[in-house]
Write a structure and sequence with these properties.
Rossmann fold; three-stranded parallel β-sheet; purine biosynthesis; histidine biosynthesis; 44% helix; five-stranded parallel β-sheet; binds NADPH dihydro-nicotinamide-adenine-dinucleotide phosphate; binds 5,10-Methenyltetrahydrofolate; alpha/beta; 2 domains
Length: 303
């Protein structure tokens, strides 16, 4: 095969999350404009950042910018690293009561003096646009209307867009965190996949992965999934966001999958950056729109 034919084949395999997210944000923006014109409602998202973690600051800035671009109100709350649990809970309760706020996101991780689970469970479940509250986790697990965690929701959208019906496919989810792995497995189960959840105690990770039609990697280990862990033609979703030092001494962003190896074997694969990350923020906006509609007793638009 010629070099250009080879390059074309690889390009076809890449799932362009950045482009899909841009389209989703446009659809959210159009729905927000309609909601505003017909009902005088402007969805509002409050983002709370505790401490000065530079990566978190970048995400929070991006979220605020994209929230405004979609025509929604953005409220940013920055608290010092030394904030107490009581102070943070007081702010969350104030946001719960504020009628202009439809979505609340408390950026994770939180400083160690704060009990994250207690904070997340204080957020009004109807405003929990991260979908991390136990009520929303329970609703998702029991097949009821829930606010669904943004990252897995974005992964599911990319999978359905690429593969159509997912029924009967064998999905392997690497990672079992409450914010990615577990809700991802629930969503895939809801889409009628046969689901395996693998983690740090799984015996033969490469063998489990090779059985996957759909492989979702969310472990936080740079390039852990090698090309020979992937079944030929499988669809690979790389959730990992890892900053590592490149050969040139500069920082670069890599996923949990060794992309160059994997792209040769996989049928389709998300890149890092430009894959799942942008979908997470677009889904956050979609969830804020959903929360605002439900607060007014309106049906959430199909996006
Ligand atoms: N793109 C995006 O928008 C987002 C990206 N991320 C990224 O996704 C990744 C995962 O995030 P998150 O779920 O929060 O991470 P956690 O650290 O909470 O969970 C990691 C999971 O991976 C498992 N694991 C860790 N090491 C191994 C290993 N060597 N072999 C097998 N399993 C392993 C752990 O197993 P065990 O339970 O046994 O410890 C755990 O279940 C990170 O890179 C994070 O940065 C996260 C959120 C959003
Ligand atoms: N309450 C809470 N909710 C979250 O959803 C949440 C959180 N806390 N804490 C941190 C993680 C991480 N996260 C990302 C969002 C967007 C990108 C993203 O847009 N990434 C770009 C690249 C960004 C870059 O260059 O650094 C991309 O992959 O193309 C990545 C990661 C949300 N998180």
């Amino acid at each position: 095969m010629s070099d250009s034919a080879q390059a074309e084949k690889i390009a076809e395999k890449i799932i362009d999350g950045k482009a899909f997210a841009a389209g989703l944000r446009e659809r959210v923006g159009a729905a927000v404009a309609k909601l505003n014109a017909e009902h005088g409602l402007t969805p509002g998202l409050a983002v709370v950042l505790v401490g000065e973690d530079p990566a978190s600051q970048v995400y929070v800035r991006n979220k605020a910018k994209q929230t405004k671009e979609a025509g929604m109100a953005s409220f940013e709350h920055r608290l010092p690293d030394t904030t107490s649990q009581e102070e943070l809970l007081a702010l969350v309760k104030q946001l719960n009561e504020d009628p202009s706020v439809h979505g609340i996101l408390v950026q994770l991780p939180l400083p160690k003096q704060i009990d994250s689970a207690a904070v997340l469970d204080t957020i009004d479940p109807a405003k929990d646009v991260d979908g991390f509250h136990v009520i929303n986790a329970g609703r998702l697990a029991t097949g009821q209307d829930a606010l669904v965690p943004c990252t897995p929701l974005g992964c599911l959208m990319l999978l359905k867009d690429r593969l159509g019906d997912l029924s009967g496919k064998h999905a392997v989810v690497l990672g079992r965190s409450n914010i990615v792995g577990k809700p991802m497995a629930q969503l895939l189960l809801g889409a009628n996949c046969t689901v395996t959840i693998a983690h740090s105690r799984t015996k033969d990770l490469p063998a489990e992965c090779r059985r996957a039609d759909i492989l979702v990697a969310a472990v936080g280990r740079p390039e852990m999934v090698r090309g020979d862990w992937i079944a030929p033609g499988a669809t690979v979703i790389d959730v990992g966001i890892n900053r590592i030092e490149g050969a040139d001494g500069k920082n670069r962003l890599v996923g949990d999958v060794a992309f160059e190896e994997a792209v040769k074997v996989a049928g389709a694969i998300t890149p890092v950056p430009g894959g799942v990350g942008p979908m997470t923020i677009a889904c956050l906006l979609a969830n804020t729109l959903t929360a605002a509609c439900r607060a007014k007793g309106l049906p959430a638009p199909e996006l």
